[in-house]
């Protein structure tokens, strides 16, 4: 892991920085690149604009590690309201949730109860995505996911390519015909848990991606999605799918709002499934700093805003 990435990931957990960052105009300007706004209305307008370009939207309300059952209930009710708003507008937009927002730190039973309410209210043809958090949450998250998948077969899970264990986790899910979003991984992890070098993470992503596409083709996976802005990796996945004579619409690329917009539109125009994760909410700081850690270009973008009037 590069020194800069390590420093940024440490900063994402710093309480003082979280409390003071929003006071600086250049930080607020930088955050606006990755978020259309803090309110659900901002996110819905962004999703509608994306859909007009044939790009799918996935909404996520920022926050994690809630403190009690009352707060978990509030987050659950928020997502239920979001699903109702999406339905009223007539969008195909989906949602993505963090289990630590739904009470996983309090108990798996509380978390599943809250998640079940959201799954019950989602349209049958859509996926509710479950985000993956730090490596210490993987076992508990997968346990809740497996339980949910038995009752709600379209539920999706995020897996992280930088974890050594992900290959086995993926293979263990095939019997349940999962939907999986593969990402590289954005948390600070020890070298005995995750690949430290970018080239190894990239290769892990590609190898896992090939297996996911094969599994989707063979009926062992309901839906394979790839969360990356790495154009070189996207090209490798496109080439693999083409060599396997897979139709373009089996390859789904999910990106973050505001990053690689031209690539998002190119994929949609060429017949691939293009989706964008639209984040919103007040608890943006740790999420935003992890985005800076993912790509040096994001950090330079923020620093340029320091000198804008």
Number of strands: 8
CA-based shape: globular
Structural class: alpha/beta
Strand sequence of the main sheet, in spatial order? 1-2-3-4-5-6-7-8
Give me the number of helical elements.
13
Proportion of beta-strand residues: 5-15%
Q: What are the low-pLDDT stretches, counting only 5+ consecutive residues below 50?
A: 304-309
- Compute the CA-based radius of gyration: 18 Å
CA-CA gap between termini? 34 Å
Any key phrases for this structure?
13% strand, 309 residues, 51% helix
Walk me through the structure.
51% of the residues lie in helices and 13% in strands. With 309 residues, the chain is an alpha/beta fold. The chain has an eight-stranded parallel barrel with strand order 1-2-3-4-5-6-7-8, surrounded by six helices. Helix 8 (166-173) links the parallel strand 4 (156-160) and strand 5. It is globular, with a radius of gyration of 18 Å. The protein starts with a helix and ends with a helix.
Brief overview:
The protein is of the alpha/beta class. Helix content is 51%, strand content 13%. It contains 13 helices and 8 strands.
Topology:
Blueprint: H1 3-11, H2 15-20, H3 25-34, H4 40-51, E1 56-61, H5 69-89, E2 94-97, H6 108-121, E3 128-130, H7 138-151, E4 156-160, H8 166-173, E5 179-183, H9 198-218, E6 223-227, H10 231-243, E7 252-256, H11 261-269, E8 273-280, H12 285-294, H13 296-305
Parallel strand pairs: 1-2, 1-8, 2-3, 3-4, 4-5, 5-6, 6-7, 7-8
Helix pairs in contact: 1-12, 3-13, 5-6, 6-7, 9-10, 12-13
């Amino acid at each position: 892991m590069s020194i800069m990435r390590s420093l940024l990931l440490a900063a994402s957990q710093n309480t003082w920085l979280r409390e003071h960052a929003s006071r600086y105009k250049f930080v607020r300007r930088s955050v606006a690149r990755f978020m259309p706004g803090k309110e659900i209305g901002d996110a819905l307008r962004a999703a509608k604009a994306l859909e007009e370009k044939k790009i799918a939207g996935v909404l996520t309300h920022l926050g994690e590690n809630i403190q009690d059952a009352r707060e978990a209930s509030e987050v659950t009710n928020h997502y239920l309201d979001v699903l109702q708003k999406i339905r009223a507008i007539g969008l195909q937009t989906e949602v993505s949730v963090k289990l630590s927002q739904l009470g996983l730190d309090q108990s798996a039973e509380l978390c599943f109860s809250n998640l079940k309410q959201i799954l019950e209210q989602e349209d049958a043809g859509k996926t509710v995505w479950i985000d993956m958090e730090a490596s210490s949450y993987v076992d508990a998250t997968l346990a809740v996911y497996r339980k949910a998948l038995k009752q709600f077969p379209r539920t999706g899970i995020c897996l992280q390519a930088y974890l050594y264990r992900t290959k086995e986790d993926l293979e263990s899910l095939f019997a349940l015909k999962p939907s999986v979003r593969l990402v590289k991984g954005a948390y600070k992890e020890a070298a005995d848990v995750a690949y430290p070098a970018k080239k190894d993470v990239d290769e892990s992503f590609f190898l896992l991606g090939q297996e996911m596409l094969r599994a989707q083709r063979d009926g062992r996976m309901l839906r394979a999605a790839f969360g990356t802005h790495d154009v070189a990796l996207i090209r490798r996945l496109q080439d693999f799918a083409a060599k396997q004579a897979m139709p373009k619409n089996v390859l789904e690329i999910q990106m973050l709002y505001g990053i690689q917009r031209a690539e998002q539109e190119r994929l949609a125009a060429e017949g691939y499934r293009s989706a964008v994760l639209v984040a919103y909410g007040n608890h943006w700081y740790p999420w935003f700093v992890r985005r800076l850690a993912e790509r040096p270009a994001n950090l330079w973008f923020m620093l340029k805003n320091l000198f804008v009037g």
